[in-house]
Every structure is written in structure tokens, then in C-alpha cells.
């Protein structure tokens, strides 16, 4: 973990309220696992007090850059969306327990399911799995066509399906509907998204090896404030910021 003032290389809007931000700095050299996140100070002197946790969407170790894709909806992230090339961002990271693509068996098939702003961390994971010889299938869920992003980027890596709740893009319904309707066959599951989606995945595919990344509001991001605790089946608690955000299915109770 390291704190660094990183430089904005590029910022662009991908969809309604969805932005892609590329930052450069030596902190990138510590980013090893997909599924980790960074804690970002979102503005200048008048920025909100707490940092914002944002997942890592892509890592380029050769260029010392990484990409975040985030939704600009609150005061902090709206300030973040106003940054331009050359501006500096105070970043703490990498944080959390990520996915382990090297643990998958080459030649097997992994299903990557993402909902809304849970889609971004699956992109780096998909690249790592593919490089490891694992076949990938992506199912991406959004509310409507205005919210869809990175369809083509995922399609370049493997079989990709998109679901929208209103049917305005791709197939109508939820991620679980698309998986069942297309009779998708896979060995393991990696899912990121809102709790209701993760719970549906856990209930729908109980026989598959499954890893879930939980979304939760955080305070410190380093396990000191106990703002993001989640109960386990045994009655104990785990912290999403340090024990997660990635857990094996059944390890914690959903919803938190």
C-alpha cells in the first residue's frame, strides 16, 4: 500500500454518468491482483472529507498507468469527473483482497458476471484469465442502453452477452436470466455487482466454484474504522475493505 499524487493522463465519458480515468505513477507497480481497489481523494481544498473507493479496471505495468471506471453521482465523484490531463489526484492503494486468476486451470471456462459499476474490475480479470489459458464468458448487466459501456472491449476478449432491465440493449432481463436462457456452460464464476445480483448468482449456481466481490460504503479503506463489516455464517464478522472485497461464495452472508 502506498499514497501518491498521480497524474491524469486521460479522462473521457463512456455512458450516462460513467467516466473512464487513466492515471500514471509508480504506485501502479504495486498493483498485482485484479479486483483490488484504490481510495481516492476526489478534489481540492473543498473536497469531501472521506476518500472514495474505486475499483481498478485495467493495469499497464509497462507504462505505469492504471484505469478506473466510475459513476459520477455524488459531490466527490462529480469533482473527480472535472479533472483533465495533467491534473493530480491523491490516491491510496492498492487495497483489498482481489481475485486470483492463476488459481484457475488452463482450458477450463470462467463466467464473469458484472452488474452496472461492478463491471470494470472484471476487465483486468478477464485479460489475466485469458493470458493464463482460461476461456472466458462475460455477462454484463445494465439498467438501460444509456448505461452500457465496454461491450466491445469485453467482446474482444471472449464471448460476451449484455442484459438490460428494459430490453433497450442486448437481451431483456437480468444477468441470471441471460445465463440460463443461453444455457451457458462454465466451471467457475466471478461476479461483481450489487448485493441483490450477487445473492441471485449464489442461489442460482450453488454447484459452481464462485467468487463474489462486494460493493460497500467505506470509511478508512484500511480496516481501522469498522464501517464495512459483513457477517459470516458462523456469526463472526469480516471487513470488506481488507478481508474482501472478494470472497468465496458462502464465506459471508449477503446482503450485508
UniProtKB/TrEMBL annotation:
Residues 1-101 form the FAD-binding FR-type domain. One of its GO terms (biological process) is 'de novo' UMP biosynthetic process. Coiled coil: none annotated. It comes from the Bacteria. Its cofactor is FAD; [2Fe-2S] cluster. FAD binds at residues 52-55, 69-71, 76-77. PROSITE patterns: FAD_FR (PS51384). It holds the Pfam family DHODB_Fe-S_bind. SUPFAM superfamilies: Ferredoxin reductase-like, C-terminal NADP-linked domain, Riboflavin synthase domain-like. [2Fe-2S] cluster binds at residues 220, 225, 228, 241. Binds 1 FAD per subunit. Binds 1 [2Fe-2S] cluster per subunit. Keywords: 2Fe-2S, Electron transport, FAD, Flavoprotein, Iron, Iron-sulfur, Metal-binding, Pyrimidine biosynthesis, Transport. InterPro entries: Cyt_c3_hydrogenase_gsu (IPR012165), Dihydroorotate_DH_ele_sf (IPR037117), Dihydroorotate_DH_Fe-S-bd (IPR019480), Dihydroorotate_DHASE_ETsu (IPR023455), FAD-bd_FR_type (IPR017927), FNR_nucleotide-bd (IPR039261), PyrK_electron_transfer (IPR050353), Riboflavin_synthase-like_b-brl (IPR017938). GO terms for molecular function: 2 iron, 2 sulfur cluster binding; electron transfer activity; flavin adenine dinucleotide binding; metal ion binding; oxidoreductase activity. Pathway: Pyrimidine metabolism; UMP biosynthesis via de novo pathway; orotate from (S)-dihydroorotate (NAD(+) route): step 1/1. Heterotetramer of 2 PyrK and 2 PyrD type B subunits. PANTHER family: DIHYDROOROTATE DEHYDROGENASE B (NAD(+)), ELECTRON TRANSFER SUBUNIT, DIHYDROOROTATE DEHYDROGENASE B (NAD(+)), ELECTRON TRANSFER SUBUNIT-RELATED. NCBIfam families: PRK00054.1-4 (NF000799). Responsible for channeling the electrons from the oxidation of dihydroorotate from the FMN redox center in the PyrD type B subunit to the ultimate electron acceptor NAD(+). Belongs to the PyrK family. This is Dihydroorotate dehydrogenase B (NAD(+)), electron transfer subunit. It comes from Metabacillus lacus.
Amino acid at each position: 500500500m502506498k499514497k501518491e499524487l498521480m497524474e491524469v493522463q486521460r479522462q473521457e465519458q463512456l455512458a450516462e454518468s460513467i467516466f473512464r480515468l487513466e492515471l500514471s505513477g509508480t504506485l501502479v507497480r504495486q498493483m498485482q491482483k485484479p479486483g483490488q481497489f484504490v481510495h481516492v481523494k476526489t478534489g481540492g481544498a473543498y473536497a469531501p472529507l472521506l476518500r472514495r473507493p474505486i475499483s481498478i479496471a485495467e493495469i499497464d505495468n509497462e507504462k505505469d498507468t492504471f484505469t478506473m471506471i466510475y459513476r459520477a453521482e455524488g459531490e466527490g465523484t462529480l469533482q473527480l469527473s472535472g479533472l483533465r490531463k495533467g491534473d493530480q489526484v491523491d490516491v491510496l492503494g492498492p487495497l483489498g483482497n482481489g481475485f486470483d486468476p492463476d488459481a484457475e486451470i488452463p482450458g477450463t471456462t470462467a463466467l464473469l458476471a458484472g452488474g452496472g459499476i461492478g463491471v470494470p474490475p472484471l476487465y483486468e480479470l478477464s485479460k489475466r484469465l485469458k493470458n493464463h489459458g482460461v476461456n472466458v464468458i462475460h455477462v454484463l448487466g445494465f439498467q438501460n442502453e444509456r448505461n452500457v459501456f465496454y461491450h466491445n472491449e469485453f467482446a474482444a476478449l471472449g464471448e460476451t452477452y449484455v442484459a438490460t432491465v428494459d430490453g433497450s440493449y442486448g437481451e431483456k432481463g437480468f444477468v441470471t436470466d441471460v445465463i440460463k436462457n443461453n444455457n451457458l456452460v462454465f466451471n467457475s464464476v466471478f461476479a461483481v455487482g450489487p448485493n441483490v445480483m450477487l445473492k441471485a448468482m449464489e442461489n442460482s449456481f450453488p454447484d459452481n466454484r464462485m467468487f463474489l466481490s462486494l460493493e460497500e460504503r467505506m470509511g478508512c479503506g484500511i480496516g481501522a474504522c469498522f464501517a464495512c463489516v459483513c457477517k459470516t455464517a458462523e456469526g463472526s464478522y469480516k471487513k470488506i475493505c481488507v478481508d474482501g472485497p472478494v470472497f468465496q461464495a458462502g464465506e459471508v452472508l449477503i446482503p450485508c
